[in-house]
Design the sequence.
């Protein structure tokens, strides 16, 4: 009964490849987020969707493209991966924008 | 500029001892403040929420305080256990111009409890 699930948990790939991370929440929340956690453990917002509508789009390279087919899903596609993209990516959801965040377990991306 | 600063950056304590983590913020207008616990390899989990009118709130051995005048919050852990070893992240919610809340994250405090 995982509330926020994201796959894959680990992803190792070569520079230049394209990869996707999927996220699903079964909490009935309206808002979903993607966060990047770097090696210093700082969580930085990348994107936020509210009812499938993009509401936050921080300064993220346009190689990163979120897609929300419905309000329970928010996927992250990354084109032309670079070494600096290596990080842990967390999906999260909240009942409303700015509400309590429920995080997934994280997806550790390693770009070689 | 809206900022959230946490101290100390890291802390090592003996099992059974108490400790206090600090969070100072400049977020305005203020909506609420949450403390999250992030175990290694896991996503953060909310421990407690503090609103403007609340000074103290407890969740088991965790007690959070808020001074909205000085814009400071603390998280006090009593009788620490090995399972308290984690990162503790302070997240402040501020009211945006559209009326929706924006979240501002601290850099976290890494707590290690040793036997």
Sequence:
């Amino acid at each position: 009964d995982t509330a926020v699930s994201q796959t894959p948990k680990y992803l190792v790939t070569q520079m230049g490849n394209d990869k996707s991370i999927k996220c699903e929440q079964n909490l009935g929340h309206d808002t979903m987020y993607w966060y990047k956690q770097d090696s210093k453990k700082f969580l930085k917002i990348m994107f936020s969707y509210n009812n499938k509508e993009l509401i936050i789009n921080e300064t993220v390279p346009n190689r990163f493209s979120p897609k929300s087919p419905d309000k329970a899903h928010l996927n992250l596609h990354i084109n032309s991966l670079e070494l600096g993209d290596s990080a842990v990516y967390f999906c999260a959801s909240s009942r409303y924008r700015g509400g309590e965040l429920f995080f997934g377990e994280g997806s550790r991306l390693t770009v070689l | 500029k809206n900022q959230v600063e946490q101290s100390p950056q890291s802390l090592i304590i003996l099992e059974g001892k108490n400790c206090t983590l600090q969070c100072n913020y400049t977020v305005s207008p203020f909506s609420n403040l949450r403390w999250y616990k992030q175990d290694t390899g896991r996503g953060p989990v909310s421990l407690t929420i503090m609103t403007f009118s609340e000074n103290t709130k407890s969740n088991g051995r965790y007690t959070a305080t808020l001074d909205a005048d000085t814009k400071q919050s603390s998280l006090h852990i009593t009788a620490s256990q090995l399972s308290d070893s984690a990162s503790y992240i302070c997240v402040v919610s501020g009211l945006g111009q559209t009326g929706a809340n924006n979240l501002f994250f601290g850099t976290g405090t890494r707590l290690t409890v040793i036997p």
Observations:
- Chain A has a mean pLDDT of 92.
